[in-house]
């Protein structure tokens, strides 16, 4: 179980760091800027998770592997980014994978700290979105979490919820729920991107009334 969590965590760090580095490439950052955005994107969600759970110093600060994994992934993107023909799509796909991995692994870490299923779900959600928000803020982008009607937080919430509820209320091994939760979160996010699934908005009437005041 511990080994699987570490593998998922490292995979999440790597793909999130890659998404951050790709955004840095698209923004014409230099080598330092690309690696910085990549590393902070990769470890940001885990740091937020650990602070919420009272794990201090955070694992990504206390131990060197998370930052090294993020840095290596960022450097790989810096040198090989021409192979990515559509940077925007690559960022979104990598972000979806990282989000799914972090949502499930964040909830599993919370369960290890003996919190409730509700708290584990919220921790998984915040773990999943924390690094992406930091990446977009650093790159002066509207965070994916806040883009109009973008299906982002809901997949993370559902993926984390699957792990939290399944891991606390059933006898099925937690690694099974980790895989299912990751698949649910990532799959729903990718399906939303592919088919244009969106949440409802308040509608243009609100904007017209605001403009008239």
TrEMBL record:
InterPro entries reported in the protein's UniProt record: Gly_transporter
Residues that span the membrane, as ranges: 32-52, 64-84, 91-111, 117-138, 150-169, 175-199
Taxonomic placement: Bacteria, Bacillati, Actinomycetota, Actinomycetes, Mycobacteriales
UniProt domain Glycine transporter: residue ranges: 7-81, 93-165
Record-stated family: Belongs to the UPF0126 family.
Keywords for this protein: Cell membrane, Membrane, Transmembrane, Transmembrane helix
Species of origin: Gordonia insulae
Protein name, per record: Glycine transporter domain-containing protein
Pfam name, any one: Gly_transporter
Membrane topology note: Multi-pass membrane protein
Cellular component, GO annotation: plasma membrane
Cellular compartments annotated: Cell membrane
């Amino acid at each position: 179980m511990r080994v699987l969590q570490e593998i998922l965590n490292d995979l999440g760090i790597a793909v999130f760091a890659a998404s951050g580095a790709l955004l840095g490439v698209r923004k014409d950052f230099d080598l330092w800027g690309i690696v910085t955005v990549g590393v902070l994107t990769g470890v940001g969600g885990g740091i937020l998770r650990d602070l919420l759970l009272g794990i201090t110093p955070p694992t990504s600060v206390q131990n060197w592997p998370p930052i090294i994994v993020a840095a290596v992934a960022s450097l790989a993107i810096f040198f090989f980014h021409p192979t990515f023909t559509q940077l925007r799509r690559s960022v979104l796909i990598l972000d979806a994978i990282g989000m799914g991995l972090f949502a499930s692994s964040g909830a599993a870490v919370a369960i290890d700290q003996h919190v409730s299923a509700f708290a584990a779900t919220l921790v998984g959600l915040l773990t999943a979105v924390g690094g992406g928000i930091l990446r977009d803020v650093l790159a002066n982008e509207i965070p994916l979490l806040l883009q109009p009607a973008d299906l982002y937080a809901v997949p993370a919430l559902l993926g984390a919820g699957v792990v939290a509820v399944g891991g606390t209320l059933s006898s099925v091994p937690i690694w099974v729920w980790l895989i299912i939760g990751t698949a649910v979160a990532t799959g729903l996010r990718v399906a939303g991107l592919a088919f244009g699934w969106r949440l409802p908005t308040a509608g243009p009437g609100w904007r017209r009334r605001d403009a008239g005041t």
